[in-house]
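Typical record was shown:
=====
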Amino acid sequence: MTRHLFFAALMLCATSAATVRVAGRQAKPDDAQREEELATAGKKATEEICASCHGLEDVTGSRRTPREWTDVVGMMVDRGAGGTDDQIATIKKYLMRYYGMVSVNTASAQDLSNVLGLSSRDADAIVQYRTEHGKFPDAAALAGVPGIDKTKIDAQPDALRFN
């Protein structure tokens, strides 16, 4: 009897531990969920903070590089734009991601990831491929990098520069 209780308790502990591990994996947001969260929170923060002084179309009317977005947002904060540090960081990420542009043939893996929403693995693969095979002439060549998420490339032709 004691032996049966011991094994029952052992099985219960093992099942609970497995459930916690699975729940931990499920609680981690996937790429699509993070994208959606950035789109929602970024748009909200941009509307609240940036559009309080000028029209949203003035903010999002032209694409900029990650460095340019960092400079523009920094300048606006210096001029008195409110918001918490988290809101400002979210606005920068949002503007880079949805209104950014990237020079594919010179950009860092981080900039490729920030603008195109690529995983770090895909962005690293692009930089490595570019280093080994030379510059990309166009989006079709970029999408030809083996193993990357081509849908992210195809979804943003206006963000890509090949100079």
